[in-house]
C-alpha cells in the first residue's frame, strides 16, 4: 500500500464504520482488510482504531465477566437492628390493596408483609411501618432500601432522622445491595402463585398465613421465626404431638437464646465469606481514579425520549463522563449533565472505561438527539406555596420558595433555593 496521507486510517474506517459493514468485530474487520490490503503494523492500527470507536463502546454489550468484586453488607449483630425494605407493585386489587411492602430482618431473615394501596404515599408508608414493624420490634438502627420515591421522600427521611435511624439506599440501578429483600419477594410471589384464585383477587388473605419463616436458613442454620422468638411456633402437625419447648426454666431459655444468637452470627459471617468467594470467581476486579473517563450503562425503561421505540435498539451506554470520587468500595460518583436527572452514584458493574481517540476526539460522536432520562426523581413544580429570605452570616441573602410538587402530597412540599428551580 502506498504511503499517501492518512490512507490506512481511511481504509480501516471504510471496513468498519460504513453502513454496509456495520461496525463488525476485530476478526471480520481484519478479514475485510486482508482480502485487499496490507502494510506494516496493520493489526496494531486496527486494534487501536476499534478500541477507540465510540459507537462500539456505547452500543455493544460486553461479553465479559461483570466488573466489581462482591462487597457484602456488614453482618447484623442482633434481631431487628438492621432491616431491608422493598415494594411489590402492579398487583390486581385485593380488598382495596394493590401493593405489598416487604420488610426483612437481616439477622434472623424474618419477613413482614404489609398490604398497601397502589398509590401509597410517603406519609402512609411511614405510618404502616410504625404500625407493623416499630410497634412490635422497635426502631431499627439501619434501614436498607431501594430508591423508590416512597423511601426517598423528605417526610420519610426527616422522620427517620428525628427518630435516630439511618437510611441506606441501594446504588443507582443496582438492586443487589438490597438483594435479600429481592429474594424474599421471589419466594412470596411463588407462594402466592401456588394458592391464588383464578381472578387473582384474594392474595391479600393469603398473606395472613404465609409461613416461609419456618424453613431453616443456610446462613444462620435456624429458621427466621426461631431466632427472634427463641423457638419454633406451634403448627397443625406439631400441635397434635403435644409439642413442648426444650427450655424448662426461664434461665435456660434465656441462655439458650443468647447462644443461638451467637451461633447465628458466626453462621452469617461464614455465609457472607462463602458467598463472596464464589461470586468473585464470576467477576473481575476494576478500579477507577478521580478524573477517569467512563461510559455509564443506563436502563432502557429510564429513557424519556425513547419510550415509543424498540428497547433493543437503544444505545447501551451513555457518555463519556468523568469520575468525581469513590463511594464505598464498589461504587463511584459520576459527573452527569443536568439533562440526566438521576442519582450520581453507580455500582462499578454499570461503568466501563472510555477509550478516546487522541488524534480525532470527535470520531464516533452521534448526531442523533441525546438521551434524556426520567426517574422517580424527576420533579415538576405545581405551584409556589410561600417564599422566604434566608440570611446567614458571611453569605449574601438568598430567596427560597416552598414548592408544591406535581404528584406528591402537600406534606412533601420542600424549601428550594431560587437558583435551583430551573432544574425542575
Amino acid at each position: 500500500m502506498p504511503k499517501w496521507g492518512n490512507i490506512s486510517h481511511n481504509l480501516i474506517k471504510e471496513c468498519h464504520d460504513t453502513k454496509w459493514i456495520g461496525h463488525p468485530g476485530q476478526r471480520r474487520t481484519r478479514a475485510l482488510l486482508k482480502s485487499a490490503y496490507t502494510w506494516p503494523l496493520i493489526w496494531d492500527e486496527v486494534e487501536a482504531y476499534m478500541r477507540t470507536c465510540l459507537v462500539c463502546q456505547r452500543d455493544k454489550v460486553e461479553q465479559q465477566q461483570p466488573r466489581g468484586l462482591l462487597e457484602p453488607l456488614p453482618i447484623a449483630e442482633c434481631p431487628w437492628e438492621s432491616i431491608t425494605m422493598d415494594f411489590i407493585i402492579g398487583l390486581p386489587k385485593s380488598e382495596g390493596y394493590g401493593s405489598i411492602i416487604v420488610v426483612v430482618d437481616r439477622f434472623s431473615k424474618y419477613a413482614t408483609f404489609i398490604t398497601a394501596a397502589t398509590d401509597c404515599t410517603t406519609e402512609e408508608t411511614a405510618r404502616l411501618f410504625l404500625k407493623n414493624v416499630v410497634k412490635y420490634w422497635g426502631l431499627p438502627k439501619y434501614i436498607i432500601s431501594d430508591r423508590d420515591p416512597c423511601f426517598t421522600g423528605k417526610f420519610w427521611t426527616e422522620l427517620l432522622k428525628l427518630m435516630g435511624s439511618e437510611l441506606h439506599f441501594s446504588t443507582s440501578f443496582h438492586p443487589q445491595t438490597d438483594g435479600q429483600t429481592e429474594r424474599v419477594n421471589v419466594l412470596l410471589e411463588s407462594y402466592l402463585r401456588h394458592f391464588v384464585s383464578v381472578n387473582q383477587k384474594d392474595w391479600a388473605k393469603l398473606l395472613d398465613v404465609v409461613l416461609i419463616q419456618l424453613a431453616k436458613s443456610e446462613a444462620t442454620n435456624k429458621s427466621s421465626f426461631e431466632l427472634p422468638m427463641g423457638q419454633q411456633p406451634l403448627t397443625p402437625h406439631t400441635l397434635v404431638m403435644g409439642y413442648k419447648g426444650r427450655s424448662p426454666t426461664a434461665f435456660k431459655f434465656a441462655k439458650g437464646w443468647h447462644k443461638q444468637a451467637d451461633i447465628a452470627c458466626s453462621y452469617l459471617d461464614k455465609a457472607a465469606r462463602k458467598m463472596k468467594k464464589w461470586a468473585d470467581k464470576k467477576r473481575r476486579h476494576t478500579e477507577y481514579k478521580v478524573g477517569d473517563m467512563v461510559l455509564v450503562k443506563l436502563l432502557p425503561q429510564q429513557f424519556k425520549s425513547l419510550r415509543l421505540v424498540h428497547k433493543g435498539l437503544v444505545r447501551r451506554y451513555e457518555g463519556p463522563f468523568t469520575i468525581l470520587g469513590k463511594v464505598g468500595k464498589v461504587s463511584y460518583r459520576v459527573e452527569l449533565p443536568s439533562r440526566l436527572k438521576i442519582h450520581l452514584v453507580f455500582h462499578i458493574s454499570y461503568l466501563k472505561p472510555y477509550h478516546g481517540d487522541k488524534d480525532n476526539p470527535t470520531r464516533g460522536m452521534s448526531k442523533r438527539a441525546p438521551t434524556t432520562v426520567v426517574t422517580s426523581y424527576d420533579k415538576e413544580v405545581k405551584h409556589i406555596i410561600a417564599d422566604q429570605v434566608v440570611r446567614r452570616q458571611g453569605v449574601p441573602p438568598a430567596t427560597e420558595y416552598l414548592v408544591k410538587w406535581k404528584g406528591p402530597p402537600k406534606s412533601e412540599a420542600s424549601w428550594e433555593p431560587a437558583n435551583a428551580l430551573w432544574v425542575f
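Confidence is low (pLDDT under 50) at residues 171-175, 303-307, 367-378. The domain at 381-423 is CATH 2.40.50 (OB fold (Dihydrolipoamide Acetyltransferase, E2P)).
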